Amino acid sequence: MKSFIIHMIGDDKRAPNAQRLLADLPDAEIVGAVVGRDPAQIADVDWRNGTLLSPGYPFAMTPAEIGVFQSHRRCWQRIVDSGLDYGLIAEDDLAVDPAGLAAALDLIKAHGTPEMYVRMPVKAREKPAQILAKHGEMRFILPRVIGLQCICQVVGRGAAERLLATTQQIDRPVDTFLQMHWESGQKIHAILPNGNREVAAQIGGSTIQTKVRGKGKLAREIKRAWYRAQVALRPQRP
Q: Which fold has domain 2-232?
């Protein structure tokens, strides 16, 4: 298993954690993040504001979200170009539990295929449509509704090829797109609980979230609830 750590070169606050992940993850290397705020780095990206796919996404894409999406595409391309069966992709605000990571990777080795995309989320919220395997309390599942965040995942080569083909145009954040298995043709699995933690708050905060206050926040929450309801109407099935 080879690992790819998405890290913005020159980010001194996150650099120590990226270095820690180099030691904690198997056969790891840093992949320079695409900087969405640099117009030159996203000049060739074909993107829209929520209008390409159904249901429509009710929020405009931010430069940071475009950069994160392209960073993940960069890692998918590395997996394909390297001829790997699988690649582990981590964002640089991840902290892992070594025993949990080893157990999760053993489950993937025993029960996964290169056609799979397997999330290892920091929040164990997803409900299974199918349980593929167990290790103690850890479960390898096909979630009914796919969770958000892309802090840690194992991506098979077939899944990487499929996702590259279906994201030549983008219109929403990468984790939101990955929920849309009916559009991508890619089922998303998960392993949870897994011991992973998010340490963004300890190393400078989120790089993509923006604060909205007052009436704007209420309107955003109403739109978010509507969108999540639309996604929940399209569950994954075994």
A: Spore Coat Polysaccharide Biosynthesis Protein SpsA; Chain A (3.90.550)
